[in-house]
## 1
Amino acid sequence: MSLPKGGWPLLVSEYLVAVRDAFAARAKAIGHRCRSWTCERVADAESESLLVCVSRVTVRVWSDGAVWFHGRDGSAATSFHASLRDSEPAELVAALMRSLDADLGNPARLSEIWRAFGPHDVVSGG
């Protein structure tokens, strides 16, 4: 199994544990796609989230199921918000893996990949 740089984070939220475990289940496949990737806990007094960076894609998932996506291809980038609450965490990992093969500067293609999560507030540009 390929571990993210820094290892697996300890989390309080059961929901984020399920998301982390979905990434752990696909760790070997992720490791084949990039040399180094990270999976980190981000917390403050009000919230806890999981920040995953794989190659040119960054995904942040909060314990309420909110998601922020950012992908960069050279000078082109796309960012958006989405929601995982009605989806399985493994579906998030699958969407992230499909995004690695996509043109990250093409918001229409990324919206198609992430359609099940209701992407909104899509921003693209350099």
## 2
Amino acid sequence: MLRSLAVGLILLVTVGIRGEEVPRFGQADASAINEMFDRYSLAVQKRDISALLDYLGTPFIQSNQSAQSEPKPIETMEALIQAFRNARDQLDARGYDHSKYVSTRITVLAADRALVNKTARRFKKDGTVLEEEAFIYLVSKTSGSWKIYGQFNQDVPYFGSVF
């Protein structure tokens, strides 16, 4: 009797009340997120604004490095693209050429949401390191595709720290 109850409970959790399979976050989702970030990074490097639209969603929450500033939502895609143009212009003024992801940690929040903790190195046109940065991104799966809905700067020494 107890065994039948346990099997029934497992089936209910696995299949759901209506007989539909409950979505789960799996390795395919982690791979899709990493592939999306590779394409996103390439679009940023190439200043391909139209491609960025495939990887960003609004409202977008962004926090910069200033401890005095609070995260503020960017409500429209036009405003979000302008923010990325401004950030890219600042990088270009410092000699930016390309970026390379160094490490990644994905924390699953739900079957369709995750936090992605990444460190990246930014390089100058001469190949020297411009800077190393860490970010925590909020990603969500909508209409079968993963998109970025938030970006938070993180001090590099704290990458992956959990207490």
## 3
Amino acid sequence: MNIIASLISAFRQARRRAWWRKNWPVVLFLLLFVCPCPFCLAFGLADQAIREVGLLPTRTPRPPATATPTAGEVAPPTSDASLFAALEPLLVLPGDLPAGLDGAQVRDFAPPGLDDLPAAEVVIHRQFARGQEVAGGVTVFLFGAAATAEAGYDQVAACLEGQTALIADLGRSALSAETSSAVEVLFSHCAALVHVRMEGVDLDSALVYARRLDERLIGWACR
């Protein structure tokens, strides 16, 4: 009796909808004279009627799918730490450095002389070493905007010593400086600012490395 009462109550509510008003005599006929299992159909109709009037959800929501990067794609970083981890392996690859120089320690702060620039999202500095001696390094700043990177470029460029020269085909703005003991390459590209210092090598060797690094960083600098 409880089942029949539930069915009647739900059926009356559902009849308010146009389809039920039009077809309820046919459904009632099927229920009473055609269906081999009236109680099975009764349960089905009750469930459908209840869902039609909005007492139960019509489906179970699924969580949104999360895109998974395919081969060759790089997932965008979600924090400064993950951005640092993504950029650090790009600083020095096999064959990048002139003979005698090796990549050494990696730090998350700039060396003296580069530590007073505008605040950056990420700062990565990797030393170069010749044997046990430090022989320069590369520092990468990733700012939140290209304008900030250009401002940092102007600030560092004003402090370079030695013989300076503009460099073509490197980043957006690029400048070299040579002294008797070291060469420096400074360039900006979109939101990135890069400073390279190498001791005991010629300028051409430093430029080869700088251009390779620029190509690797462009996807992150120009996001």
## 4
Amino acid sequence: MDGDQQVTSATTFPKEAPPGSHDITIMIMKKVGRIRSFTISYCILFWLSIFLSLYFLFSLFIISHYMDMRYRYRNQSKSLADLEEKYNNMEKGLLKAQQRAANLEAYIESTTHKEEAKDTAPVQMPDIPAEKQSTVTAPEKIIAPASYSVDIEGLDIRKSDPGIVIDFRLTNTSSGTDAVEGYLHIIVSDQYNNYPSIWNSPSREITDGIPSQYRSGERFIIQRFKQYHREFTSESSFGVPARITIIAYDPSGNLILRKEFEVRDA
């Protein structure tokens, strides 16, 4: 009976776990035989492991984002370098094309001048006896009058610090409705009738105030009018601009406009 009672009492009253039984004890043993131990709470270790896990995942996300941004930056830098190289090649090609166009224009102009020189070369007349010379006359050069006319309107001449500024309209004053075309020359001279090439628009050889080649002027084709703006800088060796002459020829070389304007002090 006593034995049964002891078993029953042991079953009825189990022993409780002592406090701190879930903590983790860490023991450190040194060579001299001393033992040091410390206890870490299970809750602290649990939350610390969760924090480290989240920190590791967040670090992986940051590193992945950094690698992706670096890859994009490298690709954009490469694309930018390729665009700069293409731009430089296109600029070089444009310069070459401009140089070829300038050479072609110079060749065409020289060819035109040669043809004009051939056309204007003097013709040697054959020797004719004196008794027959009275019946032979040299042919006269006949220049047909132009079928249209142009004029200057809205002329504005202003003196600036480096030189002068010119604004005007070249107007079609013909009675018809067709467009007119020709060559325009703007010639600027100083008070001593010098014609610096830098003042001529476009630059050409001037003889007695007249261009040597009428086709060397600026080509124009106008239906009603065309606006012009020119700037001429002063030359220390020639003084200041004093006179402006505007000359226009038709495509056949007939003079259709010549006007001179004095540059007055403002």
